[in-house]
Amino acid sequence: MSKGGRAAVARSRSIDHQLDEERERREKEVQTLILGSPGAGKSTFLKQLRLQYGDGFPPAERQTYHDQILQNVATGLVHLIEHMERIGLKFQSPEMKKLATDFKRKHPRISIVTLINKFKEADEKAEKMCPATTKAELTKRLSSLDVYKPDVPSVEDMHTLWADPAIQMCYERRHKFETDRLSASSEYFLLHIGRICCPDYLPSIQDILLIRWPTLGVQEHQFIMDYRLYRMIDVAGQRSLRKKWIHFFDEAAAVVFFVSLAEFDESLEEDPSVMAMQDSLQAFHDVSYNQFLDKTDIILFLNKKDIFATKLKNSSITTCFPDYKGPDTMDSSLQYIQDRFLHNKPATKQMYTHISCAIDVPQMKDIVATTVECVVEINVKRLKHL
Ligand SMILES: Nc1nc2c(ncn2[C@@H]2O[C@H](COP(=O)(O)OP(=O)(O)OP(=O)(O)O)[C@@H](O)[C@H]2O)c(=O)[nH]1
Ligand SMILES: [Mg+2]
Predict the structure, then answer these.
(1) Are 288 and 298 in contact (CB under 8 A)?
(2) Structure confidence by residue, pLDDT tens digits, 83-108
(3) Residues that bind GTP, according to the entry (predicted)?
(4) Is the Cβ atom of 218 under 6 angstroms away from ligand 1?
């Protein structure tokens, strides 16, 4: 064989070797992307996964959520104080009024738009100082940029505020807030304030599942099953941060896409002129047709069915879908939404759907197990085409 021929054979062997290594790594490592709109339940799903396939949140780990929970309680209280100001509901004493004013100043409710801007600024600064050259570096940076570090609120102040009759009256009227409604998680944490403000408080699993703490970068949870490493990548759902999703597309075996059913009558915080569910439909369509994901199957979660059921009692999905002509029942409305998401799907793609309530541990047990099985199957199918 000529010298050139031998070099070509060596090159070919080296490429084969690299492909084998790559194939071996992909066989051992399964990457799943968790995508979807802000607040749809991506991080909550990841917590359910940790509960079932991870460490199950031992006490030391649960303790790490303490400050986030106190912060959620504070947000709920400030929300009530702001509503009292709006409707002219007065505190009973000047001391209480001062405490409320100081508390609001120390723990302001931060809009998601402000947080995103802070995050983008920090990300651009970090990129300028030390550009990420690999995906691992980018993931590391996106998961470590911590732009939301509010002061931990005083437990005594929260106790005192919560005991005030005017705050209590405002809380009782929470269902009548016409705009800027109290979120389900704020409602939950305010209701449990007595337990949470105890000196020996240890967050329960339910408390951890109810926390609202937007993901601004990337969070990853890994678990090993049958000698395979499963990497579940949870990325920020905010519209203007979605550009980051694309960096993770090429290695994804599967996509789990979350939609909040509760958003059918809501508009986007980032752009109030856009209906949130219409935006989710668009994002889902973009992901389904993305060229880097052409062989990636999608597991669609229509989540927050509990809030959806409550909302449907007084409203209709026509708010978001004026063409809907069916009855305002749960089954019919759900079917319509599901059809809207799955209609027009790429012919080559398999789509699986779950209708879920991600904070419900017993209910999520089967759904999480089915999802993991589905990811395994999707990966087996994918490896055949590698
Ligand atoms: N009632 C109810 N609340 C839910 C459900 N799923 C999630 N939540 C709550 O909704 C809030 C947002 O959930 P997350 O899991 O943080 O949402 P996310 O998709 O990760 O949001 P981003 O990180 O902002 O993109 C949290 O307070 C959760 O406890 C559900 O099915 N029902
Ligand atoms: Mg999140």
Answers:
(1) yes
(2) 999 999 999 899 999 999 999 999 99
(3) 209-215, 234-238, 303-306, 358
(4) no
